[in-house]
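sorry to bug you again but im stuck and you know this stuff better than me. theres a chain ive been looking at and ive put its sequence and its fold in token form underneath. id like you to explain what the token line says about the fold, in plain words if possible. anything you notice is useful, everything is just below.
___
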Amino acid sequence: MTSLDRALIRLPLFPLHTVLFPGGRLPLRIFEQRYIEMTKACVRDEVPFGVCRIVRGEEVSPRGSSPPEFASVGTLARIGSWDMPQQGILHVSAEGGSRFEVRSHSIQPDGLIVAEASSLAAEPRVAVGTQFQPLAQLLELMAARVAPRHLPAERSFGDASWVGYRLAELLPLPASIKQNMLEINDAEVRLSVLQAFLKQQGLL
């Protein structure tokens, strides 16, 4: 067994037309039986599931159709709270954890995708540099006026990774660009790309 094999984790996947970032919030309305059962198992065993962005296909696939194609880099989602306001409809609030890369996957008889994945290391903590202070200030403004309910209670406006992840999830970027922001392993590179986008849009 190689070191890579030992590092692999097995987890259920929930492919979505969205990108979940570390530390981000993910509200879900679940009605497909496979995902209801997945959620129950995750709550019971206190384990996360994986969220990957769909690149081709639909979130809800008709029985017998091909499963969606998804990005290989995703984010672990831990369930914080859940509720079933009516029979067959599950409301879940999850939070993004660490990133992972899918190495292989299989499809269960009920259509649930189960992946063998390796964890990706968290970025080193880097302070927001002087050149990126306008980004942190913009995020503070958004947090106060536009999206307070979308941000976690614990905030780190001085942390480059946190600021980059929050801007990437809140700004109206194409899903493919958001995916690129997730896959970047350098917080300052991510901020540079976001800064260029905002200047192009006349927002900085």
About this structure: Strands lie at 8-16, 25-30, 49-56, 69-70, 73-86, 89-107, 113-119. DSSP finds six helices and seven strands in the chain.
